[in-house]
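sorry for the late reply, my laptop died twice this morning and i had to redo everyting from scratch. anyway the thing you sent over, i finally got around to it. pasting the sequence first so we're on the same page, its 237 residues, then the predicted structure underneath. double check i copied it right bc i was rushing
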Amino acid sequence: MKQIATVLILLILLVPASCAAMQGAGQGAQGGDGTGQDGMGEGQQMEQEQQQEMLNASSGVGIQTQQQIREQAQNSSELQLMVQERRQAMAQQADQLPQGEQVAVQNQNRVRLAVYALTAAEALAGEAGPLLSQHAQQINASQQVTVQAEEQIRTRSSLVRFFLGGDEESADEILQQVEQNRNRIQEMNQLLQQCECDDETKATLQEQLQNIEQEQNRLQTLAQEEQQDQGLFGWLL
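ok and here's the structure:
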């Protein structure tokens, strides 16, 4: 039974690759010496990369540390205003994206907004400010990893998923990042308890930490469900 299943899995994975190779060879033959088709392929790839960069910029992926550090709030009222303005800008940008991408970006924006707030409040948090900002930047870097892993899960072939189940590697990567971020959130909560800041600032930052934690809960659920998806033959592997 295991040998038959293994043969079936190999056939499922190899047949599409063989068809793609044959199709590529046919396109090369139509293109004469092949340089025209190759050039077009490179041009399309560059265009796709440029479009992805524009999408990242619009959704807030490319927020730079130096830019965030320059945007320092001078008091709690200014911090709340800055957070509100950034939240509205992110919502408007998300609304311009295709319907299927809006939910994913909205989830990611919760963390981006929290990172922005924690960094902007560095000067208001006394000695805890730099450490809070440092942890926030680490969470921001972690999110880039989880975004890619979640995209791998979302775009997994339905045929592969049916036979082999979920993307175990991407799920493991997400769970690893979630665990690290939970440790950071715990340390940041302790820092906030000792924060030399007013109650309004502390409340704002605690709210943003809760948003980060909610996103970690969502990612953990996503990864665990992916691990449980064994497919038809996944249990053999």
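The chain is about 80% helix and 0% strand.
thats about all i looked at so far, will dig more tmrw
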